[in-house]
Amino acid sequence: MDIEDTLLMIPGPVKVAPRVLRAMSRPMISHRSGEFGAIYSDCAGLLKQFFETKNDVVIMTGSGTVGMDAAVGSVIGKDDKIVTITNGKFGERFTEIGERYGKAVPVNFEWGTPFDLEKIEAALEQGAKAVAMVHNETSVGLTNPAKEVGKLARKHDAVFIVDGISSIGGNEFQTDDWNVDIAITGSQKALAVPPGLAVVSVSPRAEERFLAKSAGYYADLKAHLKSARKSPAQTPFTPAVPLFFALQEALHMASEEGFAARRARTAKQAESVRMAAKALGIELFPKVDELSHYSNTVTAMKMPEGVTDDKLRGGMKKQGVIVSGGQEKLKGKIFRIGTMGVCSSGDILRTIQTLELVLAKEGRLSARGAGVEAADKVLGA
Ligand code: PLP
Known about the structure:
Aspartate Aminotransferase, domain 1; 381 residues; 3-stranded antiparallel sheet; Aspartate Aminotransferase, domain 2; 7-stranded mixed sheet; binds pyridoxal-5'-phosphate; 2 domains; alpha/beta; single chain; globular
């Protein structure tokens, strides 16, 4: 299958619009120039709308994890405690980072199950400088209650760090209203830019609690904020300049669509995938409750009985449609379809049609076209 015909429906990196790809082929500029500073400031201003924040944002070169690393390493010293809430792979990453810099106090829930706020509060009552969570747990397709954890963080005077990497720009994410002190996203998700940039917003409250000397050198938020506040805006080290061109173009595309309209479209698209799954008798993986809901950027589904990962994803790949499998303990048990950024209705319908084709080949399809029809009903509504 020609790479140009391949449809990437994974939860990041996601499809990038041609006009964003073209923006990257501009001649190089100095990262210490006024031209670069103007691009940085323009991006930061637009990103604040995605983040729903008045806080400063910094744009770092590196994938989303550099933002997680910077957040924890700028706040947590070796004797500081950080409560890390986990119900999937990326929550566990916060525990690993927390252990690297200080003392992680993990509050673990089974992968794909909702948080129990009482357990989180009990951990915070023991005293912690920070609490970190993942808003949209990509590994299990579940959106966690950031607003409620934010209230607990504030009550117990902890810096609230939220990984919004597969969330910001796709899901609703209200940095300021939810008391998020440090919010993080990555360029290759809902922003629909190639991988390689992390965006981090920092509240004045978080800044007051920064360590005198961050544990990280490259990922030092204090240094990134200092450079971003220069005129023209800068980065402490040489950034991935072409990705800034791409980011600026992608943010203008989002602004033309409207940030709220983008989020509403993304929500509708995920709903269409869920409805298709239902029509095809495929069970959604995560468990939800009144505070935790199915992700609007990635839909995680159980592998249908009797179908292997190789047959399902391998069969779809032969038709040029790439979807994700389960990670670690969920390998072979689930598959995931990412729908964010500039994903179109046509992309979703082709994906569902291809899924139906593969299920039919495996003798697991009862009504051909039911999935496509269910998805189309939502998309056209
Ligand atoms: N957190 C979440 C929720 C993610 O989905 C990902 C990537 O999939 C990461 C963290 C890690 O981001 P990156 O691979 O960009 O470092």
